[in-house]
Amino acid sequence: MGWLAGSLALMVMSWFSCEAPRIERTLQALRGRHVLTVTDFTGAGSDAAIIALKTENNRIRMRINVEEARANNLVISSKLLRLAGP
Fold first, then answer.
1. What's the pLDDT tens digit per position in 46-55?
2. Is 77 a domain residue?
3. DSSP E strand boundaries for the chain
């Protein structure tokens, strides 16, 4: 896949436990590219996702990994960071 300068791609990954190694490898392979990764994967290696979603008390919670966003040359808006909470 070719990448255009200044372009952004979005990759959303949902998983089953048997796919965990593949998702970990994919997240690592996308590091440093202009790709916003969003996943509900919570296993080892999930820290490589920029946005991680999880269900907590019947609500969807969001964790944003600012360091990974920077590594992919992305800036997360302050409004989205506020939605994610502490």
1. 677 888 888 8
2. yes
3. 9-13, 35-39, 51-56, 59-64
Cβ of 49: how many Cβ atoms within 10 Å? 26
To the question of pTM greater than 0.70 for the whole model, the response is yes
Domain count, the chain: 1
Q: Write down the pLDDT at residue 21.
A: 76
Q: Judge whether residue 83 has pLDDT over 80.
A: yes
Residue 31 lies in a domain: yes
Residue 4 lies in a domain: no
Find all residues with CB under 8 Å of 58, minimum gap 6, and list them: none
Query: What is the extent of the structural domain holding 60?
Result: 9-84
